[in-house]
Amino acid sequence: ARFDTVLSIGLGGIISMAILVCAAANIFGTGAAVTNGKDMAIALEPLMGSWATWMIGLGLLAAGFSSAITASLSAAYAVNGVLGWKKTLKDLPFKAIWIVVLVAGCLMAIALGKSPTELILVAQAANAILLPIMAFFVLYCANGKDLGKWKNHIFANCAGVVIIVITLFMCWRNMSSFIASLQALIGG
């Protein structure tokens, strides 16, 4: 599990960094602002020509599918874990929660009729606000008495406190973004 986690997160991080570095190098000094998918395609036109729009669209579609599947899957794992239910893809309650979360997200996007960008901005800003709470909860759980020799040691606890402080700073910085995004989403 550790190898799989390190490989998948490491590879995903390298790909994300490569995308950011290439995009930044491509538009540096042009004065162009990238605010939507069309702007991303324009920024890639020097490299990909007329295929830039298709590649951006395909990349966003793939990212959407992978996020929709993994986000709802992680929600199903979390809910089933909290409720003490079985956590395998073969169990009906697990599948039901996975599908409910996936369908709920789709219905919200359709019912609100808003730009997907607005929904993403609200979700990301909300994540920044919830992150310190989750970081504290993880630190609390990692110090449980029932963990025995696996419970956190002083270094891990110090690192956890630093992470909580960083996430609190991120939360504070994103509060105005969250409020503005939420107002744009609701008010239109």
Terminal-residue CA separation? 44 Å
The largest sheet, given as strand count, sense and whether it forms a barrel, is: none
Based on CA atoms alone, the radius of gyration comes out at 20 Å
The SSE order reads HHHHHH
Number of helices: 6
Structural class of the helices, strands and pairings?
Answer: mainly alpha
Average pLDDT works out at 84
Report helical residue fraction.
over 70%
Q: DSSP strand (E) fraction?
A: under 5%
Shape designation: globular
* Beta strands, count: 0
Uncertain runs are none
Account of the 3D structure:
With 188 residues, this protein is mainly alpha-helical. The protein has a domain at 114-188. It is built from 6 helices and no strands. The chain has helices spanning 2-27, 37-48, 52-83, 92-112, 116-141, 154-187. Helix 2 (37-48) crosses helix 3 (52-83), helix 3 (52-83) crosses helix 4 and helix 5 runs antiparallel to helix 6. The protein is globular. It starts with a helix and ends with a helix. The relative contact order is 0.06. The mean pLDDT is 84.
Summarize the model shown.
This protein has 188 residues and is mainly α. Helices cover 80% and strands 0% of the residues.
Topology (SSEs and partners):
Elements: H1 2-27, H2 37-48, H3 52-83, H4 92-112, H5 116-141, H6 154-187
Helix pairs in contact: 2-3, 3-4, 5-6
Provide tags for this entry.
mainly alpha; 0% strand; 80% helix; 6 helices; 188 residues
